[in-house]
Amino acid sequence: MLDQLLLASSVSTSEAYSKVAVEAILQRVTKEHTVNTSTFSMVVSDSAVVCKEMTEKVNKLIVDTREFMDNYQASFAALRTEFKSDHEAFQTAIDVKLSKLQVDLAMESKIMDALALKEENYKVLETKLQYTQKQVDDLLAEKAVTQSCIPDVNGLLSDIIETRDPHDFHHRSSKVHSDDVKPKVSVKPPVIKQGPKDKETLFSNEPIIDDSEDEEPDEAQLKRRKAREA
């Protein structure tokens, strides 16, 4: 453009394109270029300052990030080690509790078996006791029946003795009356503790009335009769 202006000023004879006008234009252009260059330099300087500040900030951020990551990694490693130790301790405690629980369950099972065996033995003993009590009740009933028959038997014996020897009858009747005067004492049957293997009978099967006393008076009466006949 400047070349075109210089060429036009040399060829043209008009005052509008004189040398002075061209120099003024050149000065103006140069001045504007200088201003633009200065402005650009200032902008570049400001940009450099901003870039430097941003670089420093980025570097500081990188350093802070590295420190944070190092601290985080160290904390994570410590936390991982602590968590692992706690987990191992917890697992050990669980194993100990489970072992103790198994021992307690085994002991409880043994106790339950022992209780079941004792309960079974108790039921057997209870059954034996009921059977023994029933036998005792039956024997007491038989004894009561036998005692109720004693007066009838004594009456029959008295009749027989009276028919054979009246003197001996009076002697016996006085003896019976003297025996009747004695108070009757009710004696409860003794409670006999029996083991599970004891199977002895509580009462003997011997007869309650002894016939030996009845035989002796008969022999005495026979002797008296023989003495009278002689």
Largest sheet: none
Radius of gyration from CA coordinates: 71 Å
- H/E series: HHHH
**Content-based structural category:** mainly alpha
> Considering DSSP H and I runs of 4 or more, what fraction of the residues is helical?
over 70%
Uncertain runs are 179-217
Region (Disordered): 169-230
Biased composition (Acidic residues): 208-219
Structure description:
Residues 208-219 have a biased composition (Acidic residues). Residues 169-230 are annotated as: Disordered. The chain has four helices and no strands. By secondary structure, the chain is mainly alpha-helical. It has a domain at 119-229. Helix 2 (19-164) packs antiparallel against helix 3 (166-181). 0% of the residues are buried. Mean pLDDT is 75; it is low at 179-217.
Compact summary:
The protein is mostly helical and 230 residues long. The protein has helices spanning 2-11, 19-164, 166-181, 212-229. Residues 169-230 are annotated as: Disordered.
